[in-house]
Amino acid sequence: MAEPLPAGGAVPPPEQSEDRGLLADGRALWQDVHGLVHAWLRLAEMETVLSARSLVAMMGSGLSFALLLISSWLGLLAAAALLLIRIGADPVAAVLLMVLFNSGVAALVYQLFLRQGRGLGWQSSLHWMGSQAAAADPAAPARPESHDVA
């Protein structure tokens, strides 16, 4: 039978067994959180390993593709030089003409590379951040503005 409540209807103070139950619940909660964090970190580790393996495979494939493309380009240049020789051009002149042609194509690609590289500097973001910093600190020296936007 249950014990009657003391006079005034007050609840008796918690006993030691209830404290142990709360402590056990806290430990169980900690173990659950620890297990979840461990599982999440393990998943992140496995995804990182998979990403690294994929990156290595992509880089190997890209390198193979680049080598095959270069050898094909050199084959086309050799065929063009042989065609010039067959038409009656001097062999040395034909090879030099192919070298000049290849150098011209390389210069065009380099110019394209430089133009595309301008967009890598985040000029607008840097300009915006510079204007934000100037607004926050009016005593700061003004930065020269760059209007070179591709």
Could you characterize the architecture of this molecule?
The structure is a single chain. The protein has one domain. With 150 residues, it is an all-alpha fold. It is built from three helices and no strands. The protein has helices spanning 16-87, 91-117, 123-136. The model has no long low-confidence stretch (mean pLDDT 81). Helix 1 (16-87) runs antiparallel to helix 2 (91-117).
In short:
It contains 3 helices and no strands. With 150 residues, the chain is mainly α.
Distance between the termini: 88 Å
Number of helices: 3
- The radius of gyration is 37 Å
Largest sheet, in brief, is: none
| Chain-averaged pLDDT | 81
- Report the principal-axis shape: elongated
Name the features:
mainly alpha, 150 residues
Layout of helices and strands:
Elements: H1 16-87, H2 91-117, H3 123-136
Helix pairs in contact: 1-2
